[in-house]
Design goal:
The protein is built from nine helices and 14 strands. It is an alpha/beta fold and 317 residues long. The chain folds into two domains: 201 residues, Alpha-Beta Complex (DHBP synthase), CATH 3.90.870.10; 79 residues, no CATH class. The structure holds adenosine monophosphate and magnesium ion.
Length: 317
């Protein structure tokens, strides 16, 4: 039996070319980004996109984010606008995804956005995926490289643990710099945050100098925003100080108690450090088979909002 980690490859010249060829053939590969690892395929190729949904067991109503090398490439598939140009200039490449109107002549597979007239686009800030994007002449659709509802991967090993030997290529880019998925903003009308993520919504709001609310629409504009997600497979309890018997505790901030079932997101109360460690700590706890997870209160600002959003989704167990 092949070791589950044997398909993790160093990003050498040779392996980057292997990755390029695999994508051109319509195969799915694992790639690092600064947010989380992605399950990547040619966004113009419907057969390739079908494979992503199948491998991930992702429902088709939950559309995929498309990754581009630059703004010019995005503008081939999506209708640009003033806010988009402004935000791209400031925050991209980076952990922000823009929902835009899809151009009629766009070659994006309809399956990518479940036949919506919009597409979600992003320029990742990671040299490995950008290197690949520079070698190919199509954009890459890439949801997080985990089974639907499960924990997002922040190392190449996590990706291998999710899919065993079902992926022939997982490029190793080390630990993800941000550790949380991108922030999704709808720019088809008045800017609206659809999902909190790696770029704090306050930062975006301040920069655009407009107030926008994160509305809970009756009609869900961004599918895939409700129900269980990011789950370690055991119950999670929020705003707790102590664990349950046979359970683990996730802490945030200075704490002297060091027990083997205690895991600290950040001793220094640094929310960026907490974001970076978040999915890894949940996965360690899952692998150690604790029966439940209690979590300290996480301040609900900056990246804390994105962490809390994921904890709330994960606690719907
Ligand atoms: P993930 O692939 O897990 O990072 O999730 C992608 C997120 O982007 C989900 O919340 C999707 O619902 C959202 N998304 C992708 N495409 C669109 C779109 N065309 N309109 C609105 N939301 C989208
Ligand atoms: Mg995901």
């Amino acid at each position: 039996m092949k070791n589950i980690y044997s398909n993790i490859l160093k990003p050498t010249k040779k392996n980057l070319i292997r990755a390029k060829i695999a994508l051109e053939k319509g195969n799915v590969i694992g790639v690092p980004t600064e947010t989380v690892y992605g399950l990547a395929a040619n966004a113009y190729n419907t057969a390739a996109i079908k494979k992503i949904y199948k491998i991930k067991k992702r429902p088709q109503y939950n559309p995929l984010i498309v990754h581009y090398k630059n703004i010019e490439a995005i503008e081939k598939d999506a209708e640009s606008n003033k806010n988009f140009k402004k935000l791209v200039k400031k925050f991209s490449p980076g952990p922000i995804t823009y929902v835009l109107k899809k151009k009629k002549k766009s070659k994006i597979s309809p399956l990518v956005s479940n036949n919506l007239k919009t597409i979600a686009v992003r320029i990742p800030n990671n040299k490995i995926i950008i290197n690949i994007l520079n070698k190919i002449n199509f954009p890459i659709a890439a949801p997080s490289a985990n089974k639907s509802k499960s924990l997002s991967p922040t190392t190449a090993k996590h990706v291998a643990q999710e899919f065993n030997n079902n992926l022939n290529i997982i490029l190793n880019g080390g630990k993800c710099k941000i550790g949380l998925e991108s922030t999704v903003i709808d720019l088809t009308g008045k800017p609206k945050i659809l999902r909190e993520g790696g770029l704090p919504s306050e930062t975006i709001m301040k920069y655009l100098k407009i107030k926008f609310s994160i509305k809970k629409n009756k009609k869900i504009k961004s599918p895939g925003l409700v129900g269980l997600h990011y789950s370690p497979g055991v119950p999670i309890y929020l705003n707790r100080l102590k664990p349950f018997p046979k359970g683990a505790l996730i802490m945030f901030g200075k704490n002297k108690s060091r027990k083997k079932n205690f895991f600290n997101l950040s001793n220094q109360s640094n929310i960026n450090e907490a974001a970076k460690k978040f999915f890894n700590i949940l996965r360690i706890i899952k692998n150690k088979k604790y029966k439940s997870i209690c979590v300290n209160k996480i301040p609900n600002k900056s990246l804390g909002k994105a962490i809390n959003n994921r904890l709330i989704r994960a606690s719907q167990y």
